[in-house]
Design goal:
Elements lengths: L8 H18 L1 H4 L9 E5 L5 E4 L15 E4 L19 H10 L5 E4 L3 H9 L8 H7 L5 E2 L8 H10 L6 E4 L3 E6 L2 H22 L9 H13 L22
Parallel strand pairs: 5-6
Antiparallel strand pairs: 1-2, 1-4, 2-3, 4-7, 6-7
Length: about 250
């Protein structure tokens, strides 16, 4: 088993800083109403190392502390870092690990069971691009991934297969719930928050009757502007995990 103490000083510092960030980010999930009890999890890749940090399994959000965050290899194996052996990593660890191994640009992964997004997942129904916010954030409809078992890397395979070549940073795993990816943990949390927000708005809108999707040309323009011009972006900045300008929405 790999030991934390065997890592160079700069990587041990990177691990400590990542644990601080991941512990703090977990407070955002209940804050935005995305999880109940101990459901859901956030992970973040450790900069400069083939490691990531993830929430321990079954621990209350109120009790989470940086030293409890579990450090894993990209194969999903917990490393010996001095944490109590009783702190097992999240049951979704294998899925997160698979994403990191197969999507190098991804630096953060989030899983929730947020109500409206999970309702779409339960029906195996994508969230259609009927709002400019969906176009801005996801570049088209939020897709549905396959039904997969929990505990091995089947979910990770479904995430990667569904999101590879897709603009969306969110996928609705069928009859399970949403997973989101990002450049880092915070970026993936933002995607989770926005996924639930658009799922709620679309669900309410559809209760009044059918709503036509936005034209593809408008989706392309909205997505490019939001990802590359809106806010403090450098217009020449590469979108990273957000995809490339002009890429077709799935």
């Amino acid at each position: 088993m790999m030991q934390l103490e065997s890592l160079p000083d700069h990587l041990r510092r990177a691990v400590a800083e990542t644990r601080e960030r991941v512990a703090a980010l977990h407070a955002e999930l209940p804050r935005w109403g995305l999880v109940v009890w101990t459901a859901g999890n956030i992970s973040e890749r450790v900069p400069g190392a083939d490691l990531f940090v993830i929430k321990p399994s079954g621990v209350s959000y109120d009790d989470l502390r940086p030293e409890q965050m579990v450090v894993c290899t990209l194969d999903g194996a917990k490393i010996d870092d001095g944490t109590p052996r009783s702190l097992r990593p999240s049951s979704d660890t294998a899925a997160h690990a698979y994403v990191y191994r197969h999507m190098p640009a991804v630096g953060g992964v989030v899983h929730t069971h947020s109500t409206y997004a999970t309702a779409f997942a339960a029906r195996g129904q994508q969230i259609p691009c009927i709002l400019t916010m969906v176009a801005d954030e996801f570049g088209g409809p939020i897709p549905v991934g396959p039904l997969a078992i929990i505990g091995d890397d089947s979910i990770g395979q479904g995430i990667v297969d569904t999101l590879t070549g897709h603009r969306s940073r969110a996928v609705l795993m069928a009859q399970h719930g949403p997973f989101t990816i990002g450049a880092d943990g915070r970026d993936a949390v933002k995607a989770a928050v926005m996924c639930e927000e658009v799922a709620r708005a679309v669900s309410i809108a559809q209760q009044q009757g059918p709503v036509p999707p936005l034209p593809q040309a408008m989706i392309d323009k909205l997505w490019y502007r939001y990802q590359n011009v809106y806010g403090q972006h450098d217009v020449d900045e590469q979108p990273g995990v957000h995809g490339q300008p002009g890429e077709a929405a799935g």
